[in-house]
């Protein structure tokens, strides 16, 4: 059922004055701190970089997310969540 929902859900991103970011289509938060928030979204991994970043709202059932802070960059990657790219993975390449 989650898979069906993800295919029909819209991925929408709204950045206001580089201080407030609202996103629809968030699956979960990979990790976060004051300078980086990494999200798993319906469109891939999204890395948000900035300063004084705070998660203001998170509803994983609806996929909505709102963060505030000084936002410097938004970068999507195709890396699948849960895939480790740690030391052991690099050693076996």
Task: Classify the secondary structure makeup into a structural class.
Answer: mainly beta
CATH fold annotation: Immunoglobulin-like
Q: What order do the helices and strands follow?
A: HEEEEEEH
Characterize the largest beta sheet: strand count, sense, and whether it forms a barrel.
6 strands, antiparallel
Q: Could you say which overall geometry the principal axes of the C-alpha atoms support?
A: globular
Strand content: over 45%
Strand order, sheet with most strands: 1-2-6-5-4-3
Task: Report the helical percentage.
Answer: 10-25%
Overall average pLDDT: 85
Return residue spans where pLDDT drops below 50 for at least 5 consecutive residues: none
> How far apart lie the N and C ends?
36 Å
- The number of distinct structural domains comes to 1
Q: What is the total tally of β strands?
A: 6
Assign the CATH class: Mainly Beta
Please tally the helical runs, counting DSSP H or I stretches of 4 or more residues. Answer: 2
Just name the CATH architecture: Sandwich
Question: Rg, please?
Answer: 14 Å
